[in-house]
Task: inverse folding
């Protein structure tokens, strides 16, 4: 759905530019004539009344609420034939051991699972979807006049993810920073913390302490053999192609739901 919004914004932007150009052309011809007519036509005072508004209602409130309502109606019509639980989500939950913790209003999603004596947590944010849409819009604006010479490139959402692995049989935490894109994970960094609490806490204090610790080398600088074995290590724990395909798709799905809720909340607030 968010992809459709991006295309609508591109179309609307082009229409506004065209309208401004047309208005500029017409104004050079029409405005002088209107001015002359106004000078030659006597004006009569006319009484008029203004409907009463709510105390907190500004002059633009009604128009804004109308536009928000139109957008909500568009989103509702677009989702009318869609199932409550998307097929991709139902299939993923059925075929994989991951559990999804998705809190409405939050931009982060947490996936958890166990693997033997290990507790695994995979986190990602839908904020990357919005950033990817902005990049996509810029690319479209730059190439709108270019001729197509082949198949259109595949636009995917690179979603940053953070993986943490702890063990019930001992201390320590292994953290992996990576990006899910085009059906695979690109590992950027792998770090180890002796204190599992420090490696897994999501507080500002823990984040500050982690910044002062050695994070390990960049993944791409490791020996190729070590890289391959670490990738196998992650794949065995479900951090694989299936998860890499699921995360961008779920991010877009959640972003769409949060967008609709945002529209409703803003509309309700303006109407107060």
Result:
């Amino acid at each position: 759905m968010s992809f459709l919004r991006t295309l609508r914004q591109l179309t609307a932007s082009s229409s506004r530019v065209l309208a401004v150009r047309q208005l500029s052309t017409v104004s050079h011809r029409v405005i002088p004539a209107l001015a002359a007519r106004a000078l030659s036509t006597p004006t009569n005072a006319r009484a008029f009344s203004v409907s009463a508004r709510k105390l907190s209602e500004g002059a633009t409130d009604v128009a804004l609420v109308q536009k928000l309502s139109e957008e909500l109606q568009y989103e509702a019509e677009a989702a009318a034939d869609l199932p409550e639980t998307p097929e991709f989500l139902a299939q993923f939950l059925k075929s994989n051991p991951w559990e999804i913790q998705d809190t409405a209003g939050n931009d982060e999603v947490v996936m958890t699972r166990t693997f033997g004596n290990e507790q695994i947590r995979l986190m990602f944010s839908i904020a990357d979807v919005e950033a990817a849409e902005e990049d996509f819009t810029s690319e479209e604006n730059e190439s709108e006049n270019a001729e197509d010479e082949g198949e259109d490139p595949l636009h995917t959402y690179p979603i940053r993810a953070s993986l943490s692995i702890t063990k019930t049989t001992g201390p320590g935490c292994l953290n992996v920073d990576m990006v899910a894109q085009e059906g695979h994970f690109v590992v950027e960094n792998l770090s180890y913390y002796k204190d599992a609490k420090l490696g897994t806490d999501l507080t500002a204090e823990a984040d500050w302490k982690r910044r002062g610790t050695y994070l390990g080398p960049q993944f791409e600088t490791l020996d190729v053999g070590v890289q391959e074995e670490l990738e196998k290590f992650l794949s065995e724990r479900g951090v694989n192609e299936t998860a890499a395909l699921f995360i961008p798709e779920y991010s877009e799905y959640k972003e769409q739901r949060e967008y609709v809720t945002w529209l409703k909340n803003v509309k309700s607030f303006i109407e107060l």
